Amino acid sequence: MKNLLSCMVLLAGISITFGCKKSAPSIEEDTQIAPPQKVEVYTTDQDENVIKDSVFYYTKLFSLWQDYMPPKDLNDLNKPDLIRNNYTQYFKRGEHVLDWMMSLTPKNDQTGQPIDRYSYLDREGLVSDEVQDAIPTRFGIEVFYLMTEASDPNADLYIRMVERNSSAWQAGLRRGDRILSIEGDTKIDWDTQQPTGFRTLNNYLNSPSLQLAIQKPDGTLLATTITNTSFVGNPILDARIITSNGKRIGYLAFNSFVATEKPENDTWVKTAMYYVFEEVLKGLQGVDELVVDLRYNGGGAVVTAEYLADWFVPSAKNQELMYTSTMNGYFQREGWTRPGREFGPVYFKKRGSIELKRIYFLVSHSTASASELLMNVMKPHMDVYMIGTNAVDNSDKLVKEKTYGKPVGFWEVPVFEDIKNPRRNVSLYPASFKTYNKRGEGDYFNGMEPTTHVWEYRDFFDFGDPRETMLQAAITHMNTGSFVIPSTRSGGFVRKNKAMDERIQQRSNTRGRMFKFNNGALRLQE
Predict the structure, then answer these.
(1) CB neighbourhood size of 386 (10 A)
(2) pLDDT > 90: percent of the chain
(3) What's the CA gap between 92 and 336, in Å, rounded?
(4) What is the pLDDT of residues 284-294, one digit of tens each?
(5) Mind giving me the DSSP string for 282-340?
(6) Residue pair 182/193 in contact by the 8 Å Cβ criterion
(7) Is the dihedral of CA 123, 129, 131, 137 positive or negative?
């Protein structure tokens, strides 16, 4: 473990000094916060000891809520053996150390739960693969339960999104397909799976391959096999120009803020994703209106959010403030948020010729982090409309969903490296900075409130189809000034269940994350 107990921490080429000359913020209590148990110790796994100690050290150092975590004095991190002897030896794994430290953060005023529900450990480099390198590993489908008139009061398993270039995409699976069976098992409906916490379905979605029987929206059947494998990702689900009532309406749907690199001081890395977005956005120039579909977009690289904001902002707003950041007291005093520094103010740099007075975003509870940052930074500079989703809880009550609620971000902190086997590498992502738009708005920990809500699956069509309910609502408002569309949930509605949301979504840990990669060095993320 490098530099763990020294007075200087080196992180991706940026030095941080403390403890040798000055004191950092401290918690108010006179005594240190003790671990939840001090009976059993876990010290036999030397590699995990390194991970646990590093998690404790860097979470305390970088967390936005540093003042609520031990030790009382930040200088004490430099004392040999203090971390392990007083804290980490009482936890079995690094995740347990992190969970405990997160539990010490202030309580959310609405949920009563710790405000930090974001920090996490990445084992095996999943975040780097998926966000920085655009090489995810999975089937490439996102499934959910949909109750229709035919299935009422039960609900059947459907596909709501398929990632381009994935095994599922290559096999011909698409949004709106119903899954009839998995590995010949037809007992995958809501009534069968819900009582067991979707255990069987979760096991299927974590297996190496799946044999599927599919029913297409037109009633045709498809038998196919998909594999859980790596693929070169393309975050754009659909992009097109729709003509309606004499208007040219641009539509862009994408499911991840995969990292792009753009020109900076004439030196930059030319990535495929940069060109993917560049060519698509050039094709949308000259539109009268724009709809950006972020309904399943859980975030990603901040640089991509900035890049898209530079395309969307009106020319008249060029060079105006996009957003500012704040950090814990130690880094604030060190000047990290001052102009020109790592977390200094970011200003718009207008790109392209898209000129809009307003913009429409399609969102859901899965819309998180960098997606929320993009919408938040646009609000002071143009009219922003957010079309959200209705859902139904287990008591059959209406739920008007907000976005996920994540105004904070982080960067990668390597805490364990195995040169011979990089797949054993472990990185920590502690929530370390918070963003605000030009008006100082940014504390949306409980989600952003949409302008209006619709039943997403009332008209269940593929992305970009003007008949699809959410896109239809945006087009209706463009043409009439009203979001009025049929309010009934006929045609299908989602069954909301916490266990299902947490267990069966075959997605990576990048959901609800915002990642900021800065010139390939300090990798900041939200």
Answers:
(1) 21
(2) 63
(3) 34
(4) 999 999 999 99
(5) HHTTT-SEEEEE-TT--EEEHHHHHHHHHHHS-GGGTTSEEEEEE--HHHHHTTTTSTT
(6) no
(7) negative
Residue that the structure tokens 């690289």 belong to: 301
Quote the DSSP letter at residue 424.
Answer: G
Q: Are 336 and 361 in contact (CB under 8 A)?
A: no
Nearest one of 475, 495, 500 to 485, comparing CA atoms: 475
Q: Which of 437, 376, 369 is nearest to 407 (CA)?
A: 369
> Tokens at residue 191, please?
């009534």
Print burial letters for 419-440: b (CB count within 10 Å at least 16), e (below 16): eeeeeebbbbbbbbbbbbbbee
CA 404 to centroid of chain Cα atoms: 9
Question: How many residues are given for the chain?
Answer: 526
**H helix or E strand, kind and range, residue 141:** strand 141-147
Domain 137-230 CATH assignment equals 2.30.110.10 = no
Quickly list DSSP for 214-240.
EE-TTS-EEEEEEE-EE---B-EEEEE
Q: What is the pLDDT of residue 200?
A: 92
Name the CA radius of gyration of the chain, rounded. Answer: 24
Residues 250/280, Cβ–Cβ less than 8 Å: no
Q: Which pair of structure tokens corresponds to residue 154? A: 């039960």
- Buried b / exposed e across 135-168, counting CB within 10 Å, b at 16+? ebebbbbbbbbbbbeebeeebbbbbbbbbbebbb
CATH code 2.30.42.10 region(s) in the chain: 137-230
Give the 3-state secondary structure of residue 78. Answer: helix
Alpha-carbon span 503 to 199, nearest angstrom: 8
Hey, what are 428's tokens?
């920590």
- pLDDT confidence tier of residue 125, bands split at 50, 70 and 90: low
Instruction: Give the DSSP letter string of 356-371.
Output: -SEEEEE--TT--THH
Asked whether the beta carbons of 463 and 239 are under 8 A apart, the reply is: no
- Grouping H, G, I as helix, E, B as strand and the rest as coil, residue 204 is helix
Mean model confidence pLDDT for the chain: 84
Domain with CATH 3.90.226.10 in the chain: 236-487+517-525
> How far is residue 335's CA from residue 337's CA, in Å, rounded to a whole number?
6
Q: Which residues contact 147 (CB under 8 A, 6 or more apart)?
A: 153, 154, 155, 156, 190, 392, 492, 493, 494, 495
CATH topology assigned to domain 236-487+517-525: 2-enoyl-CoA Hydratase; Chain A, domain 1 (3.90.226)
Q: CA separation (Å) from 442 to 79, 274, 435, 437?
A: 37, 27, 6, 7
**Ranges 26-35, 73-82, 220-229, 501-510: which has the least confidence:** 501-510
CA 104 distance to own-chain centroid? 23
DSSP H or E run through 14: strand 14-17
C-alpha separations of 500 from 201, 214, 225, 375, 521 in Å: 10, 21, 23, 28, 37
